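Long-time lurker, first post. I've been practising inverse folding by hand and with some scripts of my own, and I keep getting stuck on stretches where the structure tokens seem ambiguous. Below is the full token string for one chain I'm working on. Before anyone asks, I'm not after the true native sequence, just a reasonable design that respects the backbone. If someone could post their per-position residues I'd love to compare against what I wrote down in my notebook.
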């Protein structure tokens, strides 16, 4: 399925980007998303994705606050 192929690509990309900035736990969560999709564990993806997005949004907010003085 094309949607899952794109999902895997994006999860893989996020995994690397998060690792590059030192977010190892969130990178591991992205890895779990990637492998769940690769292994066709589609029933797990909704819950895993929801948890990941929540943590990713929290990180984004923290980064926004940390760099707010640069604007």
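-- Answer (accepted) --
I ran through it position by position. Result:
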């Amino acid at each position: 399925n094309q949607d899952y192929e794109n999902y895997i690509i994006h999860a893989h990309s996020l995994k690397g980007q998060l690792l590059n900035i030192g977010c190892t736990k969130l990178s591991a969560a992205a890895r779990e998303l990637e492998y769940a999709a690769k292994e066709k564990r589609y029933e797990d993806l909704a819950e895993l994705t929801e948890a990941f997005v929540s943590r990713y949004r929290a990180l984004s907010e923290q980064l926004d606050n940390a760099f707010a003085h640069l604007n």
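A couple of notes from the structure itself: The helical segments are 2-20, 24-38, 42-67. The radius of gyration is 13 Å. Happy to go over any region you disagree with.
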